[in-house]
Amino acid sequence: MSQENVEIVRRVLPVKEKLPDEFLPYLHPEVEIIPSANFPESEIFRGHAGFERWKTRWPSTFDEHEVTPTRFWDTGDQVVVALHERVKSAGSSFPYEDDFAHVWTLRDGAVTRIQIFDHLDEALEAAGLSE
Fold first, then answer.
1. 116-88-121 Cα angle (round to 5)
2. What angle (nearest 5°) sits at the alpha carbon of residue 102, between those of residues 100 and 106?
3. Residue 109 Cα to chain centre, angstroms
């Protein structure tokens, strides 16, 4: 089942803004998105509407925003995703780049939780893995 979970995460992760109806079955109606401890806001995003707010809130603060998954680990019911982010603010001629990670928890083929970590090692530890 875990490889199937990786494929679900690969499918849903790039969704931007409005969640297409064909992706709704991949997200539990009460999905929770938990920002990292260092995120400027501590709001936990809940449900399909929360997922859409999460996917638009941070990117909308930049002129350019690109997040690229670089590696996936599957643990059965969780998928750890290493990500590289590149952003550029208005008035800046230089982009800012950073690496971070997510832990996606799935149950019965649906994402129930996405937790964001500032560092990959934190995400791997949370999922019971070590690099």
1. 25
2. 170
3. 17
Separation between Cα atoms, residue 110 and residue 91, nearest integer Å = 40
Q: What is the pLDDT of residues 71-107, one digit of tens each?
A: 999 998 999 999 998 888 877 777 889 999 999 999 9
**What b/e readout covers 27-61, taking b as 16+ CB neighbours within 10 angstroms?**
bbeebbbbbbeeeeeeeebbeeebbbebbeebbee
Residues in the chain: 131
Cβ atoms of residues 45 and 28 within 8 Å: no
Please tell me the CATH code under which domain 2-126 is placed: 3.10.450.50
pLDDT at site 114 = 95
Q: What are 69's strand-pairing partners?
A: 83
Structure tokens at 58: 């941070």
Model confidence at 124, in pLDDT bands (50, 70, 90)?
Answer: very high
Beta-bridge partners for 34: 115
96 with 82: CB under 8 angstroms? Answer: no
Show me where the domains of the chain are located: 2-126
pTM as predicted: 0.88
